[in-house]
Known about the structure:
The complex is a heterodimer of chains A (about 425) and B (about 150).
Chain A: H1 2-14, H2 18-32, H3 40-47, H4 56-69, H5 72-84, H6 90-103, H7 109-126, H8 131-142, H9 152-161, H10 165-194, H11 205-214, H12 216-230, H13 236-254, H14 260-293, H15 296-307, H16 311-328, H17 331-348, H18 353-367, H19 375-384, H20 388-411, H21 414-422
Helix pairs in contact in A: 1-2, 2-14, 3-14, 4-13, 4-14, 5-6, 5-11, 6-7, 6-8, 6-10, 7-8, 7-19, 8-19, 8-20, 9-17, 9-18, 10-18, 10-20, 10-21, 12-13, 14-17, 15-17, 16-18, 17-18, 18-20
Chain B: H1 2-30, H2 36-58, H3 67-101, H4 114-118, H5 120-148
Amino acid sequence: MAMLFAAFAGLMIAGIPIALSLLAAGMLVILMSPRLNMIVAPQQLLDSLDSFPLLAIPFFLLTGTLMNKGGTTRNLIDIAQSILGHIRGGLSHTAVGAGAMMAGGSGSGTADAAAIGAVMIPEMQRDGYPSAHAAAVVAAAGTLAPILPPSIMFILYGHLGNVSVGQLFLAGIVPGLLYALTLIGVSWLIAARNGYGTLRKRAPFAEVLRAIRKGFLDLMLPVIILGGIVGGIFTPTEAGAVAVVYVLLIGAVIRRNIGWNSLIEAMDEALVILGAVMLIMAAAGVAQFLLALMQAGAMLAAMLDAVSSNPLILLLTVQALLLPLGMVLEVTAVLILMTPILVPVMVSYGVDPVHLGVLMVVNLAIGLMTPPVGLAMFVTCAIAKVRVGAFTRAILPYLGALLLLLGVLVLFPGISLWLPGHLRP
Amino acid sequence: MSKLLAGVGLMAFAALILVTLAGVADRFVLGLGLVWTEELARYILIWTSFLAAALAATRHAHFQIELLPDRLGPVYRAAIAAIAAAICLVAAWYGVKFAWMFRDQHSPALGLSMAWVYSAAPFGLLLIAASSARVSVTALRSARKARVM
Lengths: 425, 149
């Protein structure tokens, strides 16, 4: 097992793509062990992708990229601005609000950060916000996507941990909203202290209504997705296909702003992200198979046993373990590798797997905006043209507040479990 | 190659959506009890994923840590890309063997030879190896140019 991790880490740091580092490390271990045939490498590569629930991933990626082409991002930003724009630091709050609404249709934090950032970062810079602050807020807003449904991380977690994706989607709603409120609170404090941005008048109610009417069809998307899943009309996978068709209908037929070219662009963007995610998924399949063979779960259980048998302390331990992993590794890879090991162990200690899923996803979402490898961070730093160092200083207050929120979520499982308990899909 | 891949990938995407929706429509409207939609969708997903991975490779979109390649210059980058290509080639070789082994096994609903499904992995890996090799050659060329100047 040490060899697996050492080879993986070594190749990755050397600059080999993460998926290939994982694959090479797996093949190396297979090669070294006399009982295993190399044929298990392609077998596991293929097997880990051969799953109907995983189909939801391309669908929600495409929904996200189509939303950008069809003006959904703009409409949602307008709604957020009409409601939150007059509060001090209004543009920061607008970015967070838009992020929360975008998250209701798309599943990828990086894609959302890019979409919101393209509009909001230049606007914030014009209004006198420091570039690093703008990049930090937008990156944080993007990380709402994996927490608020639909979410690719929840799909992966549910698939690998044998947990209902519908339940997970519901469980993410309240923590996701709290996450958004936390971001808004921190933005307000920072803006009030430093006097960022110009103060605007509160938008008249009629304008709020107008913005909502214009974006009504966009706002309905999360309602359709969640309603369909909770109502038992379709599975999360099928909800993804329905979401794609819905966004296409709005864009191509009703608003007529998605033509052939933008459709092809949207598909192309979605495919590129899909390729990167699925190759990691496939390669992680090989590593997972080996970890299961080496009984990594039992080793982890023994380790945790040495710490405590109190589920609360164990949950905190696991969170403390995941946080640095999510920072230094690509978070999807961490989720894929850790879920199959962690879920059975933690469930045996009486932790609810849905609760654990929410905690893991919130924890790893934080890793999306931290150096050295936070993808949302790279995206917004590129748009705002700021260096990672400046970004890091700007993101620190948000990280502090979000870690506090994570602690609260650990202590009060009811925050995540109340909603799925009342609405059984 | 990038264009061609994108085109094939787009068709696969469209097929995925149609097949999945056929499954939904079947359950609520048609009621034919189509069993092949789920299987076909899974197989298209496998192919789409590996093709998309190859496409992502041509766009340098695979997650990687650029810290060392950025600092240590083009010769190092060329070496790293060559290693990446080698990893893909080795995996592809076993992928071909694996697909060949299962040529006589057929899928339950469609009766498709599993070799067709399983060749997605070596096919995609070979394409990734090709684009890594290209990165390697480009980096070497720029290194030589820098030395001449």
